[in-house]
Amino acid sequence: MDLDRDKKSVLELYQLAIEKTAIDKSPYDAREYFEGIQDEIREVGEQFHASNAVLLEDEVGDILWDYFCMVAHLEREGLIRSSEHVFMHAREKYGERFEGVGLGTEGVWDAIKKRQKERLFADHEAYQKSLEKNQ
Is the pTM of this model over 0.70? Predict the structure, then answer.
């Protein structure tokens, strides 16, 4: 696995999705891409065999494409604050869980997940209150 090469490819794919979203004249919106992800996941399941590596890689790539397009549309449609919030939150969330698992204590992942969910709901409540103030 070449992380630098993979990172570059992922960033380039995401950039293409952002550019496509910016010029898109199709009726697709975030929900359409969400449904597309579900379809692609089913297609991945159909190719889940070692002898189907090329087809499986193609279907996994389709999931990435639909995911990146969905995130770009969610931001464009104002349904999320920003893609940056999505990616930073996911990185912090799973980074914290991974560090906890590294401690080797039974049930750490679930305990961290529970604390994170409590923080998430507190953040959500604060966000909702800020929206109410701005109305």
Answer: yes
